[in-house]
Amino acid sequence: MTETEGFVDQAVSGLADPQPMYKALRESTPVFRSPQVVVLSRLADIEMALKHTELFSSNMDAVDLGNIRPLIPLQVDPPEHAKYRRILDPLFTPREMARREPRVAELVNEMIDRFADRGECDFHEEFAVPLPCTVFLQLLGLPLEDLDQFLEWKDGVIRPEGASGFDRRHEASAGVAQQIYEYFERAIDDHVASPRDDLLSAMIAATIAGQPVSREELLDICFLFLIAGLDTVTDSLDCFFVYLARHPDHRHQLVEQPDILPSAIEELLRWETPVPGVARVAMADVEVGGCPISKGERVSPLLGAANTDPAEFPDPELVDFRRNPNRHRAFGGGPHRCLGSHLARMELRVALREFHRRIPDYEIKPGTQLAYTAALRSVESLPLTFPVPAP
Amino acid sequence: MTRVDIDADRCVGHGRCYTLAPEVFDADEVGHATVHTDQVAGELEAQAADAERNCPEGAITLSP
User: Fold this and answer.
1) Phi, psi dihedrals of residue A284, rounded to the nearest 5°
2) B23 CA: distance to closest CA in chain A (Å)
3) Are the C-beta atoms of A173 and A65 separated by less than 8 Å?
4) Which of B18, B29, B54 is nearest residue A326 as measured by Cβ atoms?
5) Burial of A240 (0-12, 13-18, 19+ CB in 10 A)
6) N or C: at which end does chain B have fewer Cβ atoms within 10 angstroms?
7) Partners of A281 in the beta sheet?
């Protein structure tokens, strides 16, 4: 096995520091064929693939999450894709997210209240997991007591038991997927009967070319939200806090210069790339960087590799909270640019601001071995210790 | 004066420009960028240049 193959093999089971793998791939095999997928690691190729959805489709063949119809808008390509983004994008603009920010700040502080006096916490379990999930329930207008159920479903489709890589993906996720459809059927009924100020009511009231959004379309949007909006922010929080715990100088910079926070978040998104790659499928026989790719092959543009490509980023290994410009692709690019990117940024901004205001110094509990999860980069547990703040 | 243009076909709503240069760019109702001030100089020109360099889609053009 070559060094590169070894890296890719490890990546399937979770990788603590993927940046050396990105570099090795870019430099040795920028178009890398594994048994399951063709991996792209050069920014130029990745950008091209993200832009050309007619060649590299994001449709249902790209990834199987047990769903029975395409997830909206992820698995619908242009031109049809645009009609959905036209009704969904307005619900996730930075302005709309700013309106929700005070609620999220309250929530973040309530979560910190639960462990601040203890001098330690499992950051993953007590913060990184419940925060995005609770925000999601509030945003959509679903009962907060459904939290545990949601977490179970999310893991059931993203990390199904009994599935490895692409094998048996559908069988492993289909049962959970069915429960998700049924849950949202009931939630939609409830919102149709009594509309309120939340996202689900807004989508029910929306129209596409004069027609209301159909029941199936609503279900396919809700399903996507569940898998796209929960895990990814958990991954980002885990990655960011591991980095900041291990790099006290960077952490002190955040504490001492709070105005640097927005640009620090962009740099942490670049360096950590919590969603390391996206899934596409070739729609025709094409050639990328001299390497033929056949119609129907799965292709993975590795966003993390794009984000450390020296062709775009001078000194890519340097984490500089004032890096400018920083045209990272942590949220992808082209038509399928992450719909929730501004929600994610707002959650990360509030979480980092409030946490460091109250707990500026912390470290990973000595002796901890961090175990990263496959595909999306979260850790299974992140024990932090910190001085108890003065009352 | 420098002229600011956005290629609406390229913009997908990353929102970097109106975050970095709020006096030059604005957001439409779906969060895509619009040009608020299309002729800029001095401080605004510096803001616009910052936005242009940070647009992941290369959708912004500055021309003399």
Assistant:
1) -155, 165
2) 15
3) yes
4) B54
5) buried
6) C
7) A57, A298
ipTM for the predicted complex: 0.96
With 0-12 CB in 10 A as exposed, 13-18 as middle and 19+ as buried, what is A341? buried
Bridge partners, residue A208, by sequence: A211
For strand A207-208 and strand A211-212, is the pairing parallel, antiparallel, or unpaired? antiparallel
Q: What is the mean pLDDT of residues A109-117?
A: 97
Q: Which of A86, A95, A341 is facing B27, going by the closest CB pair? A: A95
Segment A39-65 shows an average pLDDT of 96
Question: Tens digits of per-residue pLDDT, A54-101?
Answer: 999 999 999 888 899 999 999 999 999 999 999 999 999 999 999 999
Q: Where are the beta strands (DSSP E) in A61-163?
A: 120-122
pTM of the model: 0.95
Are A89 and B19 inside 8 Å of each other by CB? Answer: no
B36 to chain A, closest Cα gap in Å? 16
Report the candidate in A321, A357, A336 with the shortest Cα–Cα distance to residue A53. Answer: A336
**Residue-wise burial string across A150-160, b where 16 or more C-beta atoms lie within 10 A, e elsewhere:** bbebbbbbbbb
d(CA A193, CA A298): 42
CB A74 within 8 A of CB A224: yes
Contacts of A327 in chain B (CB under 8 A): 53-56
Concatenated DSSP letters of B7-35: -TTT-----HHHHH-TTTEEE-TTS-EEE
Partner residue facing A327 (CB), from B13, B30, B54: B54
| Tokens encoding A385 | 């210790």
Query: φ and ψ at A131, to 5 degrees?
Result: -60, -60
Q: Which H/E stretch holds residue A136? A: helix A130-140
Instruction: Work out the percent of chain A whose per-residue pLDDT is above 70.
Output: 94
Decide if pLDDT at A156 tops 70: yes
Sign of CA dihedral A229, A23, A327, A303: negative
Pair type for strands A38-40 and A298-301:
parallel
* pLDDT higher than 60, residue A12: no
Q: What is the DSSP string of A273-329?
A: -SS----EEESS-EEETTEEE-TT-EEEE-HHHHTT-TTTSSSTT---TT-SS----
